[in-house]
Design goal:
The chain is α/β, with parallel strands linked by helices. 41% of the residues lie in helices and 9% in strands. Strand 4 (205-208), helix 9 and strand 5 (233-237) form a beta-alpha-beta unit. Mean pLDDT is 94; it is low at 1-10. Bound molecules: pyridoxal-5'-phosphate. It comes from Streptomyces africanus.
Length: 456
C-alpha cells in the first residue's frame, strides 16, 4: 500500500465531512492503495473517525487494506456460525461504557424527561448533517408523524409512499388520519419512482413520502420536481439513512431513527426530524409536545399535540454515542465494498445481483437478488442456515398492500406494483452490521458460493 498525502481523494484542502460520500471515497482510496490523509471536520459525530484516520498516518504500510482496517473489525469470541444481527454486539465495549457513564450522570441529576441534553443532542445531529434544525423525538415513527403533520397532512389527505418499507411508514400516515397511496419503485434499488408517483396524484394528495430503502437515497431531485409541479409536501423517511449525502437537502423535512438496530442506535427508542426550515422545526416542537407554545409552560397554541419528544435520558446517551457515528459508517461502507467485490463473479455469471457500491448509501442493510424467484431465494436462505450456519433474512416479509388487515381490500385492493413485487420475490439480506468481523463476512461469502454452486 502506498501512503499518499498528495492525492488523498477528493478532499484535499477541505475537511472530510463524515457523510456517506466522503466515507465512500475513503474506502475507494483504501481499495486502490491510497490512505486517506485529511483533516476530519470537527463535529461530535466525527470524533472517533478522526482518531482512526490520524492513526493511519503513522501506521506502517501494510500489504492489504484489510490489514490496516483489521482493528476496526474484532473477531467475536464465540463464533458458532454467523448471526444476522447479534444483539450483544449492537454496541462495542467502549460505547457501552460511554452510555453507562452518561446514564449515571442523568441518574444523579434526575433530569429524566426534559433537560439540557435534548438541545445539545439536537445541535450535534444538525451540525453533523449540515442542516440548520433538528427536533429530537421519542422514535423514528414519532418523527414521521410529526414531520407529516408539520407539512400539513391531516385527516382524509392522501400521502404517496412505497409498499416495501417497515410498517412505521404507513402507520405514520394513518396516525395523521390520512390515507397511504402506494406507488411503484425503481429497480434494482427499490426506491420510489417519481413517474409512478406522478401517476398517483389526485386532488386529495398532500405529500410524498419516499423511504431511503436499506440506506440508499431515493431519487430526491426527481421527487422534488414532481412535488413542486403539484404543490405537494415532501417528507423523507430517512430512518435507515443517517449520514447519507443529500438527506434533508431536497425535502421539507426528514425523519431519522436512532433505535438500537439502526446505524447509530441508542439504548432505547429515539428519533429526530431534521429540516432546513426554522418554521417547520418550530411546528414540529409544538406538535411533538402537547401543542404547547414554545417557551411557555403548559400554554397551548395548537389544538392537538403529542407527547413524543426525546427524553433527556436518551438524549444524554445519544450525546455519549454520537462520537462513533461516522466511524460506524466507515465500517459498514468498508464491508459493503468488500461484499460487492467478492460477489462480482457471481453477479457476472448471472447467479445473483448485488447492489452498486454507491456514495449515497448508509449500508443499513445489504440486499442481494438471487436469480430464480421466491422459491430459489427461500431455498438459498435455508441452505445457508442449515449447511453453513449463516443467517440471512428477508427483512420485510409482507408488503404493505399484502398485510392482512381490515383496510387491505378497501385501500390496497387495486394496487398495481409490478416492480415492487418483482424485487420483493427475490430480495435476500446478508449480515451487515457495525460489529460484523471480516472473518465472518468471508464465511458468508464462502457459504454463498457453495450454496449457489449446489443449486445449479
Ligand atoms: C424505514 C423505516 N421507517 C421508520 C422506522 C421507524 O423508526 P423507529 O423504530 O425509531 O420508530 C424504521 C425503523 O424501525 C424504518 O426502518
Amino acid at each position: 500500500m502506498t501512503v499518499s498525502t498528495a492525492e488523498p481523494g477528493t478532499f484535499t484542502g477541505t475537511a472530510l465531512p463524515g457523510d456517506s460520500s466522503s466515507l465512500h471515497r475513503v474506502v475507494q482510496d483504501l481499495a486502490r492503495g491510497v490512505r486517506t490523509a485529511h483533516p476530519v471536520r470537527d463535529t461530535l459525530a466525527n470524533q472517533e473517525l478522526a482518531k482512526v484516520l490520524s492513526s493511519w498516518d503513522s501506521a506502517p504500510a501494510p500489504v492489504h487494506p484489510d490489514a490496516l482496517v483489521a482493528p476496526l473489525f474484532p473477531e467475536p469470541s464465540r463464533a458458532a456460525g454467523v448471526p444476522f444481527l447479534p444483539k450483544e454486539r449492537l454496541l462495542s465495549r467502549e460505547e457501552k461504557s460511554a452510555a453507562a457513564d452518561a446514564f449515571t450522570r442523568v441518574l444523579e441529576s434526575c433530569e429524566f424527561t426534559s433537560g439540557p441534553a435534548v438541545t445539545a443532542f439536537e445541535d450535534a445531529v444538525a451540525d453533523y448533517l449540515g442542516l440548520p434544525c433538528a427536533v429530537a423525538t421519542g422514535s423514528g415513527t414519532d418523527a414521521l408523524v410529526i414531520a407529516l403533520r408539520a407539512v400539513g397532512v391531516g385527516p382524509g389527505d392522501e400521502v404517496i409512499m412505497p409498499a416495501n418499507s417497515f410498517a412505521a411508514t404507513e402507520n405514520a400516515v394513518f396516525a395523521c388520519g390520512a390515507v397511504p397511496v402506494l406507488a411503484d419503485v425503481t429497480r434494482p434499488d427499490g426506491n420510489l419512482d417519481p413517474e409512478s408517483v406522478a401517476e398517483r396524484i389526485t386532488p386529495r394528495t398532500v405529500a410524498v413520502l419516499p423511504v431511503h430503502l436499506y440506506g440508499k437515497l431515493a431519487d430526491m431531485a426527481g421527487l422534488r420536481a414532481v412535488a413542486d409541479r403539484h404543490g405537494l409536501g415532501l417528507v423523507e423517511d430517512a430512518c435507515q439513512a443517517l449520514g447519507v449525502t443529500g438527506v434533508g437537502q431536497y425535502s421539507d423535512a426528514a425523519a431519522l431513527s436512532f433505535n438500537p438496530y439502526k446505524n447509530v442506535g441508542l439504548c432505547g427508542k429515539a428519533g429526530a426530524v431534521v429540516t432546513g426550515s426554522a418554521e417547520i422545526a418550530e411546528r414540529c416542537r409544538v406538535i411533538g409536545y402537547h401543542g404547547f407554545e414554545p417557551g411557555r409552560k403548559n400554554v397551548k397554541c395548537e389544538a392537538v399535540g403529542l407527547n413524543a419528544r426525546i427524553d433527556n435520558t436518551m438524549a444524554a446517551i445519544g450525546l455519549a454515542l454520537l462520537p462513533w457515528t461516522s466511524l460506524r459508517g466507515l465500517r459498514r461502507t468498508y464491508l459493503a465494498r468488500r461484499y460487492v467485490d467478492a460477489l462480482r463473479p457471481l453477479a457476472e455469471e448471472g447467479v445473483l445481483e448485488a447492489p452498486a457500491f454507491a456514495p449515497d448509501h448508509s449500508w443499513h442493510l445489504f440486499p442481494v437478488l438471487p436469480a430464480g424467484g421466491a422459491a430459489a431465494r427461500d431455498a438459498l436462505l435455508e441452505d445457508l442456515a442449515r449447511r453453513s450456519r449463516v443467517e440471512s433474512d428477508v427483512y420485510y416479509p409482507v408488503l404493505t398492500h399484502r398485510q392482512q388487515t381490515p383496510v387491505r381490500e378497501r385501500l390496497f385492493g387495486q394496487a398495481h406494483l409490478p416492480r415492487t413485487e418483482w424485487l420483493h420475490n427475490r430480495v435476500l439480506h446478508l449480515p451487515l452490521h457495525a460489529g460484523l468481523s471480516l472473518g465472518e463476512q468471508d464465511r458468508v461469502v464462502e457459504a454463498l458460493y457453495a450454496a449457489t454452486r449446489r443449486a445449479r
